[in-house]
């Protein structure tokens, strides 16, 4: 299971171009957890609009993923819109320890049409439209994961909206 967050229907065509980052406060009942973030384009009729990716497979707008034990970043190389994960050591979780993770989502360029919605799916494994990116069996992390939001644990997604000229 995961969580989905969706905008209201867009009031005008909306361009999103550039890098994206998801900042989450999370905890798990296990020593590690995986976060898969997927940006999706949802049409006015509620159906997802896929693009054609590698090997002509349907793909969502953009994806990103991170194992929580690899959350450490390099402050000298980090950018506000692109975390630089050092991958020098694993920082395992204590059960129910709340930590901040920054998930880099691949840069994208998409015009979401008026009436469409932007949806963010957060899951512990690859989701629909992941065929070219499938990582491993979904039984790797079997604990309960929690996403925190609000107050000093404000989780958010940073989207590069391009204003109309």
User: Residue share in helices?
Assistant: under 10%
The largest sheet is: 5 strands, antiparallel
Total beta-strand segments? 12
Assembly state here?
A: single chain
Which geometry do the CA atoms define? globular
Name the poorly predicted regions: none
Count of helical segments?
A: 0
Estimated share of beta-strand residues: 35-45%
Mean pLDDT: 90
Query: What is the ordering of alpha helices and beta strands?
Result: EEEEEEEEEEEE
Q: Give the terminus-to-terminus CA distance.
A: 40 Å
Rg value: 16 Å
Instruction: Classify the secondary structure makeup into a structural class.
Output: mainly beta
Q: What does it look like?
A:
- The N and C termini lie far apart (40 Å).
- This protein is mainly beta and 165 residues long.
- It has no helices and twelve strands.
- A hairpin with a 5-residue loop joins strand 3 (34-42) and strand 4 (48-49).
- The mean pLDDT is 90.
- Strands 1, 3, 4, 7 and 9 form a five-stranded antiparallel sheet that branches. Strands 2, 8, 10, 11 and 12 form a five-stranded antiparallel sheet that branches. It has a two-stranded antiparallel sheet with strand order 5-6.
List keywords for this structure.
mainly beta, five-stranded antiparallel sheet
Briefly, what is this?
By secondary structure, the protein is mainly beta. The protein contains no helices and twelve strands.
Task: Set down the secondary structure blueprint.
Blueprint (H helix, E strand, L loop, with lengths): L2 E4 L7 E15 L5 E9 L5 E2 L1 E2 L5 E2 L2 E6 L31 E14 L4 E7 L21 E4 L7 E3 L2 E2 L3
